[in-house]
Amino acid sequence: MMCNDALRPLTFETMLTDPIVRLMMQADGVGVAELIAAMRIAQAQVAARERLALSRACESDGTAGRI
Question: Does residue 9 sit in helix, strand or coil?
Fold first, then answer.
């Protein structure tokens, strides 16, 4: 179970071994490929937001272009 295994990194593959995740996927009619595609889109959106926030922070403190 994922919550008891703090040393194992959370990846798409480890997430898919969790029985609760699998039950939710089954209940929602979501396949592995569909879930991974959605998670990759979310991952890219989070990374883009983090880059934008860092860029804005650098602009406001005068360190833009020095990172």
Answer: coil
What pLDDT does 67 receive?
52
Retrieve residue 60's tokens. Answer: 């406001």
Determine contact, residues 2/10, Cβ cutoff 8 Å: yes
Q: pLDDT (tens digit, 9 = 90+) per residue, 8-48?
A: 678 888 889 999 999 999 999 999 999 999 999 999 999 99
Q: Please give the DSSP secondary-structure letter assigned to residue 8.
A: S
Q: Nearest Cα to 1, choosing from 12, 17, 13?
A: 17
Report field, pTM of the whole predicted structure over 0.85: no
Q: Which two tokens stand for residue 29?
A: 């009619």
Contacts of 19 (CB under 8 A, 6+ apart): 1
